[in-house]
Amino acid sequence: VRSSPTPELGDLARIVGPSNVLTDADVRAGYETDWTRRFRGCASAVVRPTTTEQTAAVVAWCSERGLAVVPQGGNTGLVAGGVPCGLSEGAVVLSLQRLQRLDAVDPLAAQVTAGAGVPLAVLQAHAGATGLDFGVDLAARDTATVGGMVATNAGGVRVLRHGAMRAQVVGVEAVFADGSVVSRLQGLVKDNTGYDLTGLLVGSEGTLGIVTAARLRLVPRLPDRLVVLVAIGSVEEALGVTARLRSSVDGLDAVEAVFGDGLSLVQRQLGLPSPFTASVDEAAVVLLVEWAGRGEPPAALLDVLDPYPSAAATEPAARAALWAYREGMADAIARVGIPHKLDVTLAPGRLAEFIRSVPDTIESVAPGAKAHLFGHLGDGNIHVNVTGAPVDDDSLDDAVLRLVAELGGSISAEHGIGRAKARWLHLTRSPEEIRAFRAIKTALDPNGILNPGVLFA
Amino acid sequence: VRSSPTPELGDLARIVGPSNVLTDADVRAGYETDWTRRFRGCASAVVRPTTTEQTAAVVAWCSERGLAVVPQGGNTGLVAGGVPCGLSEGAVVLSLQRLQRLDAVDPLAAQVTAGAGVPLAVLQAHAGATGLDFGVDLAARDTATVGGMVATNAGGVRVLRHGAMRAQVVGVEAVFADGSVVSRLQGLVKDNTGYDLTGLLVGSEGTLGIVTAARLRLVPRLPDRLVVLVAIGSVEEALGVTARLRSSVDGLDAVEAVFGDGLSLVQRQLGLPSPFTASVDEAAVVLLVEWAGRGEPPAALLDVLDPYPSAAATEPAARAALWAYREGMADAIARVGIPHKLDVTLAPGRLAEFIRSVPDTIESVAPGAKAHLFGHLGDGNIHVNVTGAPVDDDSLDDAVLRLVAELGGSISAEHGIGRAKARWLHLTRSPEEIRAFRAIKTALDPNGILNPGVLFA
To answer: How far is CA A344 from CA A415, A422, B200, B432, in A?
Structure first.
C-alpha cells in the first residue's frame, strides 16, 4: 500500500475532490484505528464524499476494480466494524462524516431526514428546536453519526421506551455494492410493498449496502422527569420489580442496573458519596429507574419502589448526579484496569442464572480476574466487563459468550458483530440462520466488496 | 388436478395424517377462494400440519418435487396472497390453522410464543388473562391468525401507538423453501447478531419462508379510555390537529378519520343518529381520537379538540357507539355497491393534495363513480373505496395507484401486494429496489416454490 495517490486513486479525486482522498499515513491513521485502539489496519485511501451521488460513484469505481470498501461513521464502534483490518486490510475507507444533509423537521409527520454524517447530538438539537426529541440516546452522542447508528442498530438507554435505531428509521437512502442507489425517504410509516429493505439494512454493519441518509421518526419532548435509584436484595427481585414497573407505569424511559459491588466501585473510584441516606447493606442490584412525562409521575411507580431504600431526583442536576452512579461504571472500571468488554442479552427468565454463573465461568479461565456487571435491565442487556485478565487472551471472551449461548442469549445486544465477534457468531446463530445470512449477503454483494470480514470470519 | 389422493400425495398423508390432506373438491373450495371472493384457483391438495416438524417435512417434500406451496392462515387477506391462482394454480395449499401452540405468558418479559394458527382473538384473551394486551387489533380478529398477520405485517387501528405487526414480533420460527427450520423464540429484545431475518420474514407474504410460530411482545392493559369524535372543516386542519395531538398528548391509541360525506353515508345506511348534539355543517373530516391510560385523560387532549364540535365517551358501550361511525364505513359502502378497495399511504404533507385530487382522477376513468375515503389519519393510511364503477375494470385502480405514486405514497399501506397488486409494484418501488427484492427472493427460495405470483407478477 502506497502513501501517496497512485494514478488510479486520481479517479477518486475527480469524484470527491483531491482534498477528500486521504493517502498520507498520518492523516489516514485516525481512520485506520478503532475507538478501542485494539484494532488497526492499513487503508489504500480514505475517501470522504459529500453527497449520495459521490458515494455511489466511489462505490461503483471500487466495484469495477473489485476493491474492498469499509464504510465508516463516527468511528465509535466497539467491534471493529469500521476499520480496515484482517480481511479488509488495504481497503478503501469510505468516511461518511461529510454527508451532512439535515432537512427541516416535518412537524405534520414528526419526522426528519438526516445524512449519514450528522452526529447524534446535532440531530437531537435540531429536533429539540421544534419541541421534538429523538428516541435513541447514547454516551457517544457528540461523535456517533446517524449512518453508523443505523448501520449498527444502535441501542442506548431508552430502548425500553422507544426501541433501538431500527424502530426510529422510517426509510433509508443507500448505495448498493454495484453503486446503484435506493431511496425511501418519503416518510411512509405504513408501507407493505415488498420486503423490508430498510429494516434489513439497519444493523447490517455496512455489509449489504451503505446508508447515506435516513428518514427518522421523532418523539415528543417530555418536560418532566423523575429518576429513582433503588437498592434491591436479589436479581430475581429486581426482575420482578422491573416487570411490575413495566406493566403498571406508563412513561418509563429507562430501567438500568448496576450489579454486585459496582456501586461501591463507582463511589470509590470516582469519589462519590453514597446516594442513599439510609445505610444500605448487600444490595445485589442497584436499579436506576427514569420516568418521563408531563406533570406528576404516576403513583404506581412510587408504590412499586416503596419497599426499597431509594434516592430520587426531578431537577436536571440532581438527576444527573444519580445517573452518574450508572454512567460512571465504564470510567470506574477503566481505573481498575483495561477491561474485556462483552455486551450480551439474556431473556429475563435466564438472567439471574447468568449473573450467578458468570463469576465462576470467568474464574475457571482467568483465575483472579474480576467481573463487573451493569447494563439495561429493562431489555435484558448486560455489559460484562472483566478486569485483571490478560488483555489479548480471547479465552475469557470465549467462555463468557459460550455461557450466554448455553442460556439461549445473544452474544451481542447492541454493539454488533463487526470483525471482533465474527468467529463467535455460530454460538448464537444456527447453521441454517448463517446460511440464510450468507445467501442474502451474496445476493446483494456478489463480489463481497462491502466490509469484508464483518459478520463472516 | 385430481380430486382424490394420488399415490404421491400418500406421502403427505404419512406426514400429517390422512385426514389432513384434503383433496375433495368441495372441501378444498373454502381454501381455494379468497375472502373477497374475487380470486379463486385450484389446489393439488390442502395440507394441514399440526407442528413445525410436519410443516418442514411437507415443504421439503414439495421442494424435492418442485411443487409450489401456498401458505394460508385465516384466509382473511384482501390481495389474494393466500390462494392458489394465477402462477400458483395447482399448488399445495399449506393451511397453518392447526399450528395452535400457545405458551404461557412470560410475565417477566411481557412476551408470549404463539403458533401460526392461533387466531388474534384467542391471543388477545390469553394475554388479557395476565393483565396484558396485544399491540395490534383489527376487525378480522376472530379469524385472522398470528401466522397470517406476521406474514403480511398486519396493521389495524392501533399502529399509531404500538406499530404494526413487525414491531410486535421479537422473533420467529420459520420453515425455509428447502424445508430447513430457523427458530429465534427466546425473546431477545436486543440482539445485534447478523441480519434481521425476523423483520425480513415479517411482511414477506410467504415468499421467503413460512412462519410457524412467533415470539410476541405484549403491552400493558390500560383500564381507562376516552373516545372523542370531532368535526373539522378541512383536511389541512385535521392534519394540524393530529400533529398537535401527537406532540402534546401521551397515550394516544388511535386517530382515525372519515372524509367528506362518509359520516352521512354511515348514518343513512346504518340508521344511526347524528353523533353531535350541535348541528354540524360541511365537515371535511370527522376525526375519531382514542386515548388510553390510567386515570383522567390529559387536559391537552381536550384543549386541542376544544374548538370543534365533538362527542365524547368513556364507557365501553358509549365508546363503541362512537367507533361505529368509523367502523361502519365498510358496511355502509357495501350497501351502496360492490367497491373497489384501495389501501394507500401518503406522507402527511401530501395527504390533503391526494384527497383533493382523487375524485377527479376517478371521474376521469369511471364517470359517475363515487369515492368513499376513510382510514388511519395518524399513519397517513387512507382506504379509498369506490362504488359505481365496473367491478372487474382495473383501470380505476390503476389511475388511483398512479396518483398515489406521483405523490410519493405507498400503493399498499397494510394489505400487502399479494397477487392482486403485483402488477403495480413498480409504481411505488424503483427498479433498483425490485432488483434487490428479486435477489433476496432467489437467495432464499432459488426454485421459486414459495407462493409464486405473490409480489412478482
So the answer is: 9, 15, 23, 36
Distance from CA of B379 to the nearest CA of A (A): 6
Q: Which residues of B touch A56 (CB under 8 A)?
A: none
Local confidence band at A283 (pLDDT 50, 70, 90 cut-offs): confident
Interval A83-105: pLDDT, tens = 998 889 999 999 999 999 999 99
Q: Quick check: B33 and B66 in contact, CB under 8 A?
A: no
Cell numbers that stand for A396 in this block: 475469557
Q: How far is B138 from chain A (nearest CA, A)?
A: 15
Per-residue pLDDT reduced to its tens digit, A155-188? 988 999 999 999 999 999 999 999 999 999 999 9
DSSP B51: S
Which pairs count as long-range contacts for A297-300, CB under 8 Å and 24+ apart, including other chains? Answer: A297/A224, A297/A226, A297/A251, A298/A249, A298/A250, A298/A251, A298/B294, A300/A248, A300/A249, A300/B294
Rounded Cα distance between B152 and B148, Å, is: 6
Alpha carbon B289 to chain centroid distance? 21
Neighbours of A87 (CB within 10 A): 18
Give which of A394, A396, A392 is closest to A384, Cα–Cα: A396
Q: Which of B368, B452, B361, B454 is nearest to B406 (CA)?
A: B361
How far is Cα A112 from Cα B317, in angstroms, rounded to an integer? 40
Interface test with A, best of B106, B168, B190 (most A CBs within 10 A): B190
Q: Which residues contact B46 (CB under 8 A, 6 or more apart)?
A: B21, B22, B23, B27, B28, B31, B92, B93, B95
CB contact under 8 A, B188 and A410: yes
Residue A134: all three cell numbers together = 429523538
Nearest chain B Cα distance for residue A268, angstroms: 31
Q: Report strand pairing: A285-293 vs A252-259.
A: antiparallel
- What distance lies between CA A445 and its chain's CA centroid? 24
- For residue B389, the tally of other CB atoms under 10 A from its CB is 22
Distance from CA of B195 to the nearest CA of A (A): 6
Does the beta-carbon distance from B410 to A379 stay under 8 Å?
A: no
pTM above 0.95, yes or no: yes
Amino acid at the residue A154: A
Say which of B220, B380, B412 has its CB closest to residue A247: B220
What pLDDT sits at residue A391?
84
- Phi/psi-derived region of residue B164, left when phi > 0, alpha when psi is between -120 and 50, beta in every other case: beta
User: Per-residue pLDDT tens for B106-148?
Assistant: 999 999 999 999 999 999 999 999 999 999 999 899 999 999 9
3 state SS of A3: coil
Would you list the DSSP string of B226-268? EEEEEEES-HHHHHHHHHHHHHH-TTEEEEEEEETTHHHHHHH
Chain A with chain B: Cβ pairs closer than 8 A: 259
Asked if the Cβ–Cβ distance from A191 to B251 is below 8 Å, we say: no
Residue B102 contacts residue B116 (beta carbons within 8 Å): no
pLDDT of residue A282: 75
Site of grid cell 426510529: A168
Q: Which three cell numbers stand for residue A91?
A: 481497503
Mark yes or no for CB contact A294/B298 under 8 Å. Answer: yes
* Residue from the list B183, B191, B433 with its beta carbon closest to the beta carbon of A194: B433
The answer to whether residue B5 scores a pLDDT higher than 80 is no
pLDDT digits (tens, 9 = 90+) for B405-436: 999 999 999 999 999 999 999 999 999 999 99
Contact assessment for residue B77 and residue B34, using Cβ atoms and an 8 Å cutoff: yes
Is the per-residue pLDDT at A349 higher than 50?
Answer: yes
Closest CA to A199 of B167, B140, B261, B79: B167
Contact B88, B70 (CB under 8 A): yes
